[in-house]
Q: What sequence folds into this?
C-alpha cells in the first residue's frame, strides 16, 4: 500500500480517530494520552506537509472515497457520484497554514496539559476542530463542505465555551454558535438549491454546469452570506471578538485557522464553483467593499478596546478585511485578467499565511500575559517587560508585523495589496494604508501599556513550551518578512494561480479530459 | 401544487429569522434557529420527491414504479443529525449562562459588548 | 412521577429498546439505520429519566461516554478497513461470508447478512448515537435537577 496516495484522507481521518480514542487512553494513563496526542499530531502534520509537496510538484491530487481506486473519480457516463477530496495548490497551501497553527497550539498547550487533569475534553475538541479544518480545505464536495463546516463550528464553540465555571466563555460561545449555525444553514440552503437544480454535489461537476441562472445567483448570495458570517466580516463580525477574546490562547489560534478555512471556502466558491468571471465585476466589488468596510470598522473598534485579547481579536478581524480586499480586487478584474489582478490575489493569499503567523503570535503572547498575571485588562496591566522579556519581545514583533512595518512579513503581503488596489482605485489603497497606520498606533499603545513602565506586579515567566511555540511563529514572521520572494515563488504563487486561472485544471482533474 | 413544500420551507425559514431578530430570550433564539433548520430540512427532503414515487427500499420496490430520490433524504438526515448536535450544544450553553446570571434575557446578560 | 407513569414506562421500556435495536439492525435494508435507531434507544433513556428521575442513572455517565467513544472509533476503524483500495471502500460486500451475501431482488423478509460493512457501521453509529444522545438527555436533566431541587 502506498501511503502517500491516501494522504488527503489520512490527514482528516487520523486526527478524527485520534480525537475519539483520546478519552480512552486518558482513562488508562495521562502520559499515554499525551503520547497518543503527540503521535497523532505528528502523523497528521506529516501527511499534510507531504500532501502539499505532492500538490505543488505534481499537480492536483484527487481522492475518491469508497471507489476501487482513489483516482476513479467518475462512474460510467462522466458523472462523479462519490464523495471526493480534491487538493490543488490552494488547498495544500491552506493545509500548511492549518498545520503550522495546529502544531503551535499543541506545543503551546503542552504545559497546560501537564498541569491538570481536566484537559482531555479540550484536547479531544482540538483534534476534532483540526480534522474539520483539514476537511474544509481538502473536500471537493459541497455537502461534505457543509458537514465539515458544522464540525468545525461545533468543535470551535465547544472550545470557546468549555470553561463553564467562568461566566463569560459560555456567553461568547453561545453568541458564536448562533451565528455559526445561521451561517451554516445559509450554506446548506444554497447547497440544496444547487442540488435541486443540477442533481449533483460535486464542486467540479456543478461548476461545469452553472451558467448564471437566477437560482445560481440566489445560491451564490446565500453562500456568500453564510461564509462571510463564519469568516467574521463586518457586519457579521460580532462573534469574533467574543470568541477570540474568551477562548484560551491555544484555542484562539486554531480559531484563526478555522476562520481562514471559511475564507478559503469563499475563494473556492467564487473562483472555482462559480467560475470567477461569471459574476465577476459586481461580486468582486461587493467583496472589495466588504473587505474595506471590515478593515476600517475593525481598526476603529480596536482603538477603543481595553481588553488585550479583544484588541488583538479586532486586529485579526481587520486582517480578514485585507485578505478580502486583495482577493476581491483580483476577482473584480478577473474577466480582463490584467497583471495587477494576479498581484492582488497573491497579496491576499500571502496575507493569509502572514496573518496566521502574526495573529497567532499575538494571541499566544497575550495568553502568556494572562497566565502570568491573571488579567487581560490593559488599564490594570503595566511593566510586564521586566519579567516577561521574551513574551514582550514576541508581542512587539507581532504588533509591528500586524501593522505592516517594513522588514516584517505583514509588509511583504500588504505592499502587494496596496499596489494592486491602488490600480483599481486609489481610495481603496488609501483606506488600506490608513488602517495599517491606525493599527500601528493601537498596538504600540497596547505594548506600551502592558509591557513598559514601572513594575506593577510580580509576573511569573512563561514556561518553556509556550516560549517554543511563540518562538517558532516569531521565526516564521521574520523569515516571511526577510525572504518573501522565496515563499512567494514556492508557496504563494502556485496557490494564487490556482485561483487566477486554475479552474480548468481543477475541473479536468475531477471530470477527466 | 408541486411547489407547496418549497413555500412552506421558506415560510419556516422566515418565521425562524423573525424569531431571531424579534426575541430576546435565549431559548427562543435557539428555537428560532431550530425552526430555520426545519425549514431547510423540509426544503432538502422535498427536492427528492417524485410524484407517485415509492419509498426507495431497494429490496422491496415493485418494478416499474418510480422511487423518490434517496440522496436528498440522506442529506436531510445528516443535516438533522448536525442540527441535533448544535441544538444540544446551544441548550447546554444556555443552561450554563442561566446558572451564572439567573436570567435568560439576552439584553440583560451582555457582559461582552463592543 | 406517579405510579401510572412508572408502570407504563416499565411496560414500554423493553419494546422501545427492541424497536431501536430493530431499526439499527435493518438499517441497510429499510428506512432507518444507526442514527434513527440510536435516537429511539436514547428516547428510552429519556423515558427512564422522566419516569424515575435522573439521579438513578447518574452513575452511568461514564459508561455512556465510553460507549460513545467506542462507537466513533469503530466507525472510523471500519472505514479504515477499505484503505487497501480507498478509505470507506466496502470490502465485505458481495464477497460471500460475513455480510457478504448479495441483496436479493423483490419482496423478501430482509436478509441481514447483506450490505458488507454497512450493517457494522450502522451498529457503530447506533452505539455512538444512543450513548451520545442518552448522555445529552441525562446531563440536561441533571442540570435541571440541581437547580430546581
A:
Amino acid at each position: 500500500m502506498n501511503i502517500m496516495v491516501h494522504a488527503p484522507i489520512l490527514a482528516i481521518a487520523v486526527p478524527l480517530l485520534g480525537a475519539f480514542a483520546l478519552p480512552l487512553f486518558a482513562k488508562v494513563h495521562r502520559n499515554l494520552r499525551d503520547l497518543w496526542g503527540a503521535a497523532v499530531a505528528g502523523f497528521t502534520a506529516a501527511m499534510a506537509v507531504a500532501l502539499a509537496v505532492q500538490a505543488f510538484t505534481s499537480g492536483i491530487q484527487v481522492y475518491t472515497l469508497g471507489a476501487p481506486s482513489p483516482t476513479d473519480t467518475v462512474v460510467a457516463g462522466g458523472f462523479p457520484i462519490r464523495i471526493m477530496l480534491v487538493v490543488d495548490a490552494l488547498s495544500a497551501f491552506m493545509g500548511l497554514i492549518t498545520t503550522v497553527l495546529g502544531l503551535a497550539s499543541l506545543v503551546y498547550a503542552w504545559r497546560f496539559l501537564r498541569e491538570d487533569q481536566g484537559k482531555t475534553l479540550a484536547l479531544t475538541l482540538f483534534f476534532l476542530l483540526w480534522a474539520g479544518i483539514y476537511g474544509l480545505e481538502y473536500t471537493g464536495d459541497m455537502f461534505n463542505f457543509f458537514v465539515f463546516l458544522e464540525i468545525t463550528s461545533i468543535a470551535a464553540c465547544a472550545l470557546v465555551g468549555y470553561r463553564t465555571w467562568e461566566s463569560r466563555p459560555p456567553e461568547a460561545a453561545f453568541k458564536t454558535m448562533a451565528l455559526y449555525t445561521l451561517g451554516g444553514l445559509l450554506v446548506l440552503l444554497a447547497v440544496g438549491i444547487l442540488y435541486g437544480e443540477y442533481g449533483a454535489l460535486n464542486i467540479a461537476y456543478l461548476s461545469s454546469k452553472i451558467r448564471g441562472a437566477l437560482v445560481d445567483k440566489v445560491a451564490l448570495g446565500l453562500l456568500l452570506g453564510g461564509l462571510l458570517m463564519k469568516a467574521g466580516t463586518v457586519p457579521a463580525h460580532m462573534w469574533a471578538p467574543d470568541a477570540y477574546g474568551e477562548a484560551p490562547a491555544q484555542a484562539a489560534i486554531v480559531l484563526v485557522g478555522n476562520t481562514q478555512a471559511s475564507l478559503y471556502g469563499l475563494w473556492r466558491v467564487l473562483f472555482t464553483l462559480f467560475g470567477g468571471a461569471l459574476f465577476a465585476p459586481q461580486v468582486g466589488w461587493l467583496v472589495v467593499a466588504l473587505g474595506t468596510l471590515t478593515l476600517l470598522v475593525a481598526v476603529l473598534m480596536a482603538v477603543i478596546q481595553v481588553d488585550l485579547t479583544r484588541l488583538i481579536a479586532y486586529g485579526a478581524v481587520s486582517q480578514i478585511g485585507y485578505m478580502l480586499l486583495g482577493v476581491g480586487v483580483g476577482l473584480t478584474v478577473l474577466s480582463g485578467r490584467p497583471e495587477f489582478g494576479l498581484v492582488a490575489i497573491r497579496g491576499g493569499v500571502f496575507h493569509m499565511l502572514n496573518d496566521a503567523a502574526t495573529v497567532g503570535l499575538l494571541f499566544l503572547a497575550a495568553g502568556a500575559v494572562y497566565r502570568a498575571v491573571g488579567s487581560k485588562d490593559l488599564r490594570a496591566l503595566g511593566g510586564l517587560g521586566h519579567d516577561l522579556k521574551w513574551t514582550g519581545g514576541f508581542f512587539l514583533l507581532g504588533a509591528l508585523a500586524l501593522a505592516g512595518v517594513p522588514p516584517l512579513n505583514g509588509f511583504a503581503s500588504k505592499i502587494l495589496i496596496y499596489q494592486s488596489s491602488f490600480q483599481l482605485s486609489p481610495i481603496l489603497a488609501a483606506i488600506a494604508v490608513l488602517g495599517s497606520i491606525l493599527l500601528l498606533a493601537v498596538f504600540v499603545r497596547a505594548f506600551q501599556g502592558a509591557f513598559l513602565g514601572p513594575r506593577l506586579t510580580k509576573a511569573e515567566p512563561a514556561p518553556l513550551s509556550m516560549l517554543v511555540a511563540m518562538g517558532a511563529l516569531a521565526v516564521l514572521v521574520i523569515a516571511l518578512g526577510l525572504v518573501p520572494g522565496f515563499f512567494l515563488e514556492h508557496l504563494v504563487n502556485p496557490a494564487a494561480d490556482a485561483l487566477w486561472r486554475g479552474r480548468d485544471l481543477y475541473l479536468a482533474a475531477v471530470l477527466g479530459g | 401544487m408541486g411547489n407547496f413544500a418549497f413555500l412552506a420551507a421558506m415560510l419556516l425559514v422566515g418565521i425562524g429569522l423573525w424569531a431571531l431578530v424579534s426575541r430576546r430570550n435565549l431559548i427562543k433564539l435557539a428555537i428560532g434557529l431550530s425552526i430555520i433548520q426545519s425549514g431547510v430540512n423540509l426544503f432538502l427532503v422535498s427536492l427528492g420527491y417524485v410524484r407517485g414515487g415509492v419509498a426507495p427500499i431497494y429490496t422491496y420496490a415493485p418494478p416499474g414504479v418510480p422511487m423518490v430520490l434517496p440522496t436528498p433524504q440522506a442529506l436531510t438526515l445528516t443535516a438533522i443529525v448536525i442540527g441535533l448536535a448544535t441544538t444540544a450544544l446551544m441548550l447546554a450553553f444556555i443552561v450554563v449562562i442561566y446558572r451564572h446570571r439567573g436570567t435568560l434575557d439576552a439584553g440583560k446578560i451582555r457582559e461582552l459588548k463592543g | 412521577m406517579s405510579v401510572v407513569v412508572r408502570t407504563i414506562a416499565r411496560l414500554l421500556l423493553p419494546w422501545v429498546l427492541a424497536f431501536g435495536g430493530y431499526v439499527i439492525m435493518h438499517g441497510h435494508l429499510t428506512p432507518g439505520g444507526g442514527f434513527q435507531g440510536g435516537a429511539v434507544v436514547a428516547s428510552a433513556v429519556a423515558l427512564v429519566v422522566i419516569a424515575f428521575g435522573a439521579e438513578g442513572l447518574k452513575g452511568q455517565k461514564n459508561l455512556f461516554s465510553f460507549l460513545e467513544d467506542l462507537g466513533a472509533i469503530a466507525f472510523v476503524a471500519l472505514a479504515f478497513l477499505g484503505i487497501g483500495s480507498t478509505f470507506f471502500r466496502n470490502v465485505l460486500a458481495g464477497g460471500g461470508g460475513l455480510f457478504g451475501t448479495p441483496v436479493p431482488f423483490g419482496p423478501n423478509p430482509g436478509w441481514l447478512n447483506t450490505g458488507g460493512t454497512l450493517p457494522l457501521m450502522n451498529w457503530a453509529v447506533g452505539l455512538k448515537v444512543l450513548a451520545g444522545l442518552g448522555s445529552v438527555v441525562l446531563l440536561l436533566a441533571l442540570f435541571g435537577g440541581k437547580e430546581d431541587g
User: Anything to note?
Assistant: The first strand of chain A starts at residue 61 and ends at 64.
